[in-house]
User: What shape does this take?
Amino acid sequence: MEFIFALFKAVITLFIIIDPLGNIPIFIGLTRGLAREDRRRAFRNAVLTGFVILLCFALIGQYMFMFFGISLHSFMIAGGILLLIISIRIIVRGEWTENSTTPERIGVVPIGFPLLVGPGAITTTILTLQAHGAIVTVTAVLVVFAAVHIILRLIDSIYKFLGSSGSLVISGLMALLTAAIGIQYILEGILWHFGTT
Assistant: This one.
């Protein structure tokens, strides 16, 4: 019973932090110029990338930070800066566009990381590992990414409902929110640094 409660708590917390439902407009905006099959391929790559990254951090994240002498809050600052850059590009250009963009590339960055798996998700996973152990943590990651995969499979229907103009407007608004999240990560990291020095 204790295992079930710990797993339920870990799954809910991680799902809220990753927030695939709230990020749907951003995902639509990022893949707006892709064909339907390319968009699906990008999402498959995003799920695989996010899952592998989070699983690696769940198992060896603490040791990686210790090896490189990096704190979680320094990682939050780096992730916040990356989110801020992504947001600015979406706001200025109307979408995430690069001449060399491929479904594989856009699925890895920025969708897989840092939108699906960012500093918040990584921090949450490491804290879950410390509190409940490896079995609960790995199971929670599996359950959450199974849910994320299902949600991303339904995005085509949502995209069709919103249309091109609607998805453009919503992705712009969500880019502002993403910028705010990025700034929040940066501020938390800086405040923690000055609070411990």
About this structure: The helical segments are 2-18, 24-30, 36-68, 72-93, 103-116, 119-132, 134-153, 155-195. The chain is about 85% helix and 0% strand. The chain has one domain: 2-18+44-195. The first helix runs from residue 2 to 18.
